[in-house]
Design goal:
The chain is mainly β. Helix content is 0%, strand content 55%. The protein has strands at residues 2-7, 12-18, 25-27, 34-40, 46-62, 70-71, 78-84, 90-96, 99-105, 113-114, 122-127, 133-138, 145-150, 157-158, 165-172, 177-184, 187-194, 201-203, 211-213, 219-226, 231-238, 246-248, 252-258, 264-269, 279-284, 291-295, 300-306, 312-328. The strands form 7 sheets. Strands 4, 5, 6, 27 and 28 form a 5-stranded antiparallel sheet that branches. It has a 4-stranded antiparallel sheet with strand order 7-8-9-10, with no helix packed on it. Strands 11-12-13-14 form a 4-stranded antiparallel sheet, with no helix packed on it. The chain is globular, with a radius of gyration of 21 Å. The protein starts with a strand and ends in a 5-residue tail after the last strand.
Amino acid sequence: MLINSVEPVSNLPQIFYVSFSDAAERRITNDLNAYFGISASDDGKTIVTAQRLFAKNISVFSGDNPNQANKISKESNIHSTAVFTPDGRIIYDAADNNRPHIWMMNADGSNPQQLTPNDSTDFQPLASPDGRFIFFISERTGDRKIWRMDIDGSNQQNLTPFEGIMFSHNLNPEKQTVFFDWNKNEKKVMGEVPLAGGEIREFSLFGNSLTAYSPDAEQVAYVFIDEKDKKRKVRVRPFESEEPVTVFDISPIEFLRWTADGKGLLYREIETDDESVSTVWLQTVSGGKPQPFLSVKPDMVFNVSQSKGGKQSAVVRGNLLTDAVMLSKIEPN
C-alpha cells in the first residue's frame, strides 16, 4: 500500500510504502518538498504524485514603510528564517539540492557567504546579542541538535550532545544560556544549556505550539487552546513566574515573534480569507486590538524579524508551486 504521511522530523507529507504482510513502513521520498495524492501503474513500477514547493524570498524594508520593501535574495530557495545580526547583516537558511544551509549577507543582499558545509542539514540561525556567535539547528549527527559557530562560520560545535531531538531554540542573554524544546524519551520538555556548552537543565514546556521569548528573555508568549471556547489564544507571562498573565484573543500560525523593543508581538493569523496568509499583524502587549503591520499580497508571508532597534525588518515571503511528478522503480542490473 502507498500512503501520504507527515514525516515527523521535517513535518512534510512524504510518500511511504507499507507492506500488508508485516505492516513494515518504507519511505520512498526524502526531500524538502511536500507530496499529495498518489496513483500507481498496474505493475507498481511507476508512481504519479503532486509535488508542492514553496518558492521563498527575503525582502527588507526600513522603518514603517513596507511598501518600499526590496527583494534581496538572489534565488527563491529560502528555507524558513532570516534574522539580523547586531551589526545589521542578515543570517538565513537557504536550500541547495533539497538541503538547507546557513548563509550570511549584507542587508542589501550583497556579499552572500555560505557558512555551513554542503553535506549537512542546518537551519533556523540565530545571532547572539553580542554578535560573536550564531546558533542553529543541525541534523549532521542524525538527530536535530543545537549547534554554535563563530560569526564567520568557524569553530562549529554541538552544544547538545544528548539523547533526543532539539528544536525551537532561543537565547537568554542575561543568563548566557540557550533554551530549546526537547523531545526526550517520547516526552516534550524544555532544555537549557550554557552558551559555551556544559550541563543541560530540564523543565516544563510553556505550550505545545508556537512560543516566543522577549528580547531580554524576561517574558514568554505562547499559543494555547482555551478550554472554554476551544479557541487558539496567546498567553504572555514572565519567563520565571506564572504571574502576572495576559491573554490575547489572537490565533497565530506559522510564526510568532516579539518586536525588537519588546513591546509587541508579530504574527500571521490563522487562515480566515485570502488576505490572511499575506498579512503580518502587530499585537501590543499593553493591550488594544491588533493592527496590520505589513502585507505582502499576493505573496504568502512565512516569517518576519526586526533589526536591533527596529529600524529594519526582514520578511520571508513567497508562493506555492505545484508540479506533477513521476517516480519510477529502477531495476538492478
